[in-house]
Structures
1.
Amino acid sequence: MSQGHAIPAAAAGTVPFVRMDRDDPELLEELLGVVRTVAEESSFILGQHVEGFEADFAAYCETDEAVGVASGTDAIALALRALGIGKGDEVILPANTFIATAEAVSIAGATPRLVDVDPVSGLITAELAERALSSKVRCIIPVHLYGATVDMDPILELARSARIAVIEDACQAHGARYRGRRAGSMGHMGCFSFYPAKNLGAWGDGGAVVTSRPELADRVRLLRSHGERPRYRHRVIGTTARLDGLQAAVLRVKLRHLDRWNAQRRRAAAELRRALSGLALELPAAPVAAGDHVYHLFVVQSDDRDLLRAQLTARGVASAVHYPVPVHRTEAYAHLGLHAGSLPVTESMAERVCSLPIFPGIEDWQIRAIGAAAAEVAQADDDSPRSLVA
């Protein structure tokens, strides 16, 4: 983060939600170089660039294997299929997540068993998961939401006792650690998304499954490419869910910067906390004991989110809501029969959460601008009648 005391005039009123690769000329040139190499080699489907990234990402995640796939959704769906989980089975997961976690369960043919989350962390806990156990449950998917790690040891112990699998949804937690272990490395498998805005983002969709169980990695590799091995011998019904060579080449370059970028996100989060201290906002919870937070998102909660977002917009500060409709209240999952009020913590958070800008390289003046815009909500609350302060 740069130092300074005043908001530069030319940049005043412009705080984007994310910073993309185009804003880093040196990185952009390196990425364009590897894209050119892939194009010149016509190494578009699997091949050396995918294999190289898989080896690098497995080493980074401290697992034996990594399998590149087409998206984070595919990663979870294929992980479930690799474990033989499907029709008639149930999978426990938090309702406070992006719908893709539940979609992947449905794609695999199983049924999501949605549970509420801890009111402080917003994450699933072993205690909440245990209440949802039944004879049909075959797996639990803890979600490291926003980049904050779930308290994994109690969940792993619960899963061992219940003899069910654990698949970590680490799609927002690239590089985070829990008790010294990388997110994604603790369950049977860990799943990642490389959507462009993620801490490790591709130039399109992409994902990966990591594991230290070679038989599961082998199964995912088979499933991601039509169940084919060798060519035209289709051993199982698979799909087209391969990570392509262009994305792998981009990701391999960016992986070398991930720890530095995560450190910048943590520093930015600390500055944001200071800038927002004393305001009528609920700031992100501190990581669980021996846990971590890599701040894919910096999510606050407000009793008047609409006013907060309007005030931010009036000051040129971007914001977003992750996620405004809980999974169980979407039309897609109405068939689960979870009525309003059935998962109250998740439902309350959906009405109050607001994601503020955070990204590597965010400048001090931008953080101050976020704090100043948020501070005016309190002033607006005191106005009669209520109005935005321009």
2.
Amino acid sequence: MGDLTPTQTAPGLHIIKPSPDAPATGSAVCHCGASATATGDAQVQLLVQGWEANHGSAHSQRGK
């Protein structure tokens, strides 16, 4: 499997939690230029919430 880390040319949200005892890590890059990373389950959850609220599919819904 290739590298799934989002980039400016391939934006998205990528979350990793290798085991139940390991902390989650996440990264996000939006086509608008915003990017963020997070480490730890709580911080990754906030990253996902922010992505859903402000980036990704939220951009296509704002014009409706």
3.
Amino acid sequence: MIVYNVTTKVAAAIQTDWLQWIKEEHIPDIINTGCFTHATVLQLLEIDDSEGPTYAVQYFADSKSLYNNYMEKHAATMRQKAFDKWGNQFIAFRSLMQVVH
């Protein structure tokens, strides 16, 4: 299982709206690409959140090829949608992990 992790620091002013958007619109859009089976939203604790909270969204893919498909065909569009909606009120970084049994 491949985990595509997107960690996002969100401005305090958009926190509630962003969280609603990520859960109700953005994650379903990404799952609907067929590349991921499900996603989990986590909030980071014990960090400086004076400028706003930090969240990690983990998207689970059955294979690296499904992740590669997402990156090649969908990632740019999804990132642009987020930027168009929220502008510079967030910053995100991404990492790729593999579940180890």
4.
Amino acid sequence: MNAPLYNTEILRLAASVPFDERLAEPMGSVEKRSPVCGSRVTVDVMVDAEGQISAVGMLVRACALGQASASLMGAHVVGRSAAQLAQARDELTAWLAGERDVPPDWPGMEIFAPALPHRGRHASIRLAFEAAAEAAEQARG
């Protein structure tokens, strides 16, 4: 586990967060903040009749790891259900805590393997997934 914490791929993802504007009238909206570093992510969602994410907006004020996580979440969130987002959030939490040997079943998450021993960075990595899962649940109403 000698890979650098902030590598080129993390920095590329951090600089390319999709859906970087808030939705005007979201069906669900949640802000999460890391008490450790002050990183903050707000996720707004709209869901379709089947309960799948149809639109997303984000406000990301986070470190590079939090931005990269928001980028990965945003790149693959449309079409997902609240249950799928909750599963990704739970798998991410378990993986970061060492309770799971493999990264979450979400594209690109292995990029955070160098952060596993840095517990103080975990909250920032979880923010976007926590906010998205809660916003999707809220939108289901």
